[in-house]
Amino acid sequence: MTLVEGIKEVIKHKELVYQLTYAEFKSKYKQSVLGISWAIFQPLSLTLIYTLIFTLVVRMPSNGVPYPIFVYAGILPWTLFSTGVTRGVNSIVAYAGLVGKIYFPREILVVAAVLGGFIDFMFGFLIFILMMIYYQVPLTFNILYIFVILLAMFFLTMGISLALSAFNVFVRDINHVVPIVVQIWMYASPIIYPLSAIPPRYLNFYVMNPVVGLLEAFRNIFAIGIAPNLTYLGYSFFGSIIIFVIGYKIFKKLETKFADVI
Q1: Contact (Cβ atoms closer than 8 angstroms) between residue 241 and residue 155
Q2: 242-261 burial, b if ≥16 CB within 10 A, otherwise e?
Q3: Which of 32, 157, 171, 226 lies 20 to 30 Å from 7, alpha-carbon distance?
Q4: Cα–Cα distance measured from residue 51 to residue 163, given in angstroms and rounded to the nearest whole number
């Protein structure tokens, strides 16, 4: 099955995508006292911690932007990415009973896990807008780039999640390694520090990190109010598509063996 045919197959099962996404979102906060508030608490608490550390203890440059706005503009899209990957890696194994009994495009399970992260993102985004109002940070027409950024983030998250979820069926250690790698990846990305803090001689290598262009673009259009660096955004966008295609091919190649192993 080609990539285009696979996408059409997923669209044909859109009702199942909706149901699994809702189930994924609901199960995450089931029997939780704070419920959906956790979607807001996670990025907000990290913002508070980093603000205290990097304004009172160690002074961190923020390109003239109030540091809470600066760091939240990095944490929010990063949380979208990291949540999607950590959920996505376990998506096939979590529905082992379903995979072994009935036919449906298995990638739908990964799509549902990633879309669940997008729902969390929307709640966190509302808090971001309130923060911008409080700090009197104006919105500009550059925010329209958000659609390009989120589309690229979806492709990137899906590509990585598809490959890792397939590998996780055969090697369950993947599920334990991913959170560690994601944590390291976070500090290798411009979240708590600006891209300008990277020495120029390392910059070309640094922007090969596919999330760099997306995080920097998100911060530019909201926190600073300027257009994103189209070169860096282009690297990340096309890099995300390449990663998605590779992840999809890996997933489909291993998919035929899922039922036997699970």
Answers
A1: yes
A2: ebbeebbebbbebbeebeee
A3: 171
A4: 35
pLDDT tens, N- to C-terminus, the chain (262 residues): 678 777 788 888 888 888 888 877 777 666 554 556 666 777 878 788 888 887 776 677 777 889 999 999 999 999 999 999 999 999 998 887 777 777 788 899 999 999 988 988 998 999 999 999 999 999 999 999 999 999 999 999 999 999 999 999 999 889 899 999 999 999 999 999 999 889 999 999 999 999 999 999 999 999 999 999 999 999 999 999 999 999 999 999 998 888 777 7
Q: How far apart are CA 135 and CA 6, in angstroms?
A: 45
Structure tokens at 49: 């911690």
Predicted TM-score (pTM) of the model is 0.91
Which residue's structure tokens are 């090969």?
208
The residue among 112, 95, 108, 116 whose CA lies nearest residue 258 is 95
User: By the 8 A CB rule, do 221 and 77 touch?
Assistant: no
Question: Residue 239 in contact with residue 210, Cβ under 8 Å?
Answer: yes
CA distances from 168 to 90, 91, 113, 114, 142 (A): 7, 9, 15, 16, 39
Q: Evaluate whether 214 touches 96 at the Cβ level (below 8 Å).
A: no
Query: What is the tally of structural domains in the chain?
Result: 1
Residue 158 has phi, psi (to 5 degrees) of -65, -45
- In this structure, the chain runs to a length of 262
Alpha helices in 89-210 (DSSP H): 91-94, 96-99, 107-134, 146-170, 174-187, 200-206
The domain in which residue 185 lies consists of 3-261
- Residue 7's contacts (CB-CB under 8 Å, 6 or more residues apart) are none
- Cα dihedral 70→87→85→112 (10° resolution): -100
